Amino acid sequence: MTPSNRLTSSNALTPSLTRRPPCTVLRHEGRIVGSYVHRPQLPGMLAPRPYLHPVRTLGGATVTGLRPAEHPAHLGVSMAVPEVAGRDFRGGPGRLDHQGSQRHLSWLLRDPDGFVEELSWTAGGRQLLLERRTVAVRALGTGCWALDFTSALTNVTGREIGIGATGHAGGFCWPLPRRPEPAHVFSADGEGEAAVHGRPADWLALATDDWTLVFAGATGDTRADPWCVRTGEHPGVGSALAWERPLPIAPADTVTRRIVTAVADGRLDRPAAARIAGQLSDKGAAV
User: Fold this and answer.
1) pTM of the model as a whole
2) In Å, how far from its chain's centre is CA 17?
């Protein structure tokens, strides 16, 4: 990414989207591979937040899900945290009086291949977190590209607050489109949902006949977080900031996580996924 403001909303680029919320398109070598909705028009019960959808392979296959009827708070690629200082930033019915929202404040950088954004995490009329979010498109070779997603959350309350332990995803979330046949999931350490769900792993992959996604924690702190993986009725991948114990954040401290996801056409096997994973983080990967 280079500093500029050349990237415009897709409303200006694609007239058919004029009735949708403003969104920013991401490109890889001139090809649109993702749309980022930075000012979503959503009810409060969904914990409104910016999200990426659709995200596509270079061949055009959609690899994100959005608002399935039974889980309308599943909002593409986003930061969805069930509890921050007692407030819900993931969304869903039954807790409307506890819901928070993430609000776009400003662009610090915006280019066709990515952006840096500031967001306010607010609940009950009070700002709890200030987020600096960096999203970038990376080239990986023929038939593949990568989405580089970094979230830096700073406690701005003046007192210690906590991210609640939930035993499931709470942080980076990537809902998947539903398919007749579940995706095959594997990591460097195991194969199948039971082998990877709730466990840390340097990388994991979900593969179908149409596409493969390879997720890698790009920092040590990110790799230490357990993955939440579902391949059945409500498929998706997430990373948990707080699984068994709450994560405290002291006043003015920042919690940073970075996940890089390779988006490939077709089905990749374990050796191919491992080779790609080695390009995604600061550590490399083993087969």
Assistant:
1) 0.90
2) 23
CA distances from 268 to 172, 262, 287 (A): 23, 11, 13
What is residue 44's predicted lDDT score, i.e. its pLDDT?
73
Q: How much is the pLDDT for 85?
A: 93
**Hey, which residues does 255 pair with through a beta bridge?**
153
The C-alpha atoms of residue 28 and residue 138 are separated, in whole angstroms, by 8
Whether the Cβ atoms of residue 261 and residue 174 lie closer than 8 Å to each other: yes
pLDDT of residue 3: 42
116-166 pLDDT tens trace: 999 999 999 999 999 999 999 999 988 899 999 999 999 999 999 999 987
Q: Are the CB atoms for 206 and 237 separated by under 8 Å? A: yes
Q: Which two tokens stand for residue 65?
A: 């899900």
**H or E segment to which residue 2 belongs:** none
Q: Do residues 177 and 63 lie in contact, with contact meaning Cβ atoms separated by under 8 Å?
A: yes
Q: Is 234 left (phi over 0), alpha (psi -120 to 50) or beta?
A: beta
DSSP string, 61-120: -B---B--TT-TT-BSBEEEEEEETTEEES--TT-GGGB-EEEEEEEEEEETTEEEEEEE
199's tokens: 């466990």
Tell me, what amino acid is at 49? R
Check if the beta carbon of residue 57 is closer than 8 Å to that of residue 63.
yes
The pLDDT assigned to 146 comes to 98
pLDDT < 50 stretches in the chain: 2-18, 286-287
DSSP letters spanning 135-175: EEEEEEETTEEEEEEEEEEEE-SSS-EEEPP-SS-BEEEEE
